[in-house]
Amino acid sequence: MKLFILCSVISLALSGRVCLPKSWILEWSFPDDSHIDFSLTLDSQTLSSYDWVGIGFKYITDGDGMDKADINNFFLTSIPVDSYALISAQPCLDTYFGGTEDILNAVYDSTTLVYTWTREIDSGDIYDKVYTEGCSMKLLWACGMVDAYGEQLMHLDDDKEMIDIILSADYDYGCVTEF
User: Fold this and answer.
1) What is the number of structural domains in the chain?
2) Is Signal there in the keyword field (predicted)?
3) Average pLDDT, whole number, for the chain?
4) Beta-bridge mates of residue 55
5) Within-domain flag for 10
6) What is the domain range of residue 95?
7) What is the rounded CA–CA span in Å between residue 142 and residue 158?
8) How far is the CA of 139 from the CAs of 21, 136, 161, in angstroms?
9) Where are the alpha helices (DSSP H) in the chain?
10) How far is CA 35 from each of CA 55, 102, 104, 163, rounded to the nearest angstrom?
């Protein structure tokens, strides 16, 4: 396990990244021809104020809104699950639609507030996107609460956003480097 975490840290040193509102940082790298590694760093305020976080991807041609989004859905402090938004509403597990669970090697480090996980570049699941290095995609993020039954509630307008990104190792968006 330590070797996996060390390899993940080294591979993320040559990674693309997006600094999101709420002080989140999403990073990715392509460790080989078949996989993409992700790292999501949250802040303590997110963990104390929300119950779930979603990080999703869509092709640029899929348009705006949540529909057609491949979503990594996190009930906070648990590992992410592979979800899909058929419409602009709560995403469902890929397995609900007949797809497969394709999040690999998911780890949550409660000390650093970092989630790491791997996806196949092309899982073959119709509910997953193909994560081609250098491709343009829409990145969606959101966070919110769950109800008394543990069901995911809709996010508020200030707790979501969609931006266009490029999945490349040299991509950097919204991050400020201090010297």
Assistant:
1) 1
2) yes
3) 90
4) 72, 141
5) yes
6) 2-173
7) 9
8) 13, 10, 8
9) 2-13, 44-49
10) 17, 11, 10, 23
